[in-house]
Amino acid sequence: MIVLLATRNRGKLSELGTLLTGSPLELKMPEDAGAKMPEVKEDGMTFKDNAVKKAKALAAASGQWALADDSGLEVEVLGGAPGVRSARFAGDNAGDDANVRKLLKILRSARNRKAKFRCVLALAKPTGEVLTADGFLDGEIGKTPMGEGGFGYDPVFYLPGRNVTVAMISYDEKQRISHRAAAARKLVGLLPGFLGGGST
Question: How many structural domains compose the chain?
Answer without folding.
Answer: 1
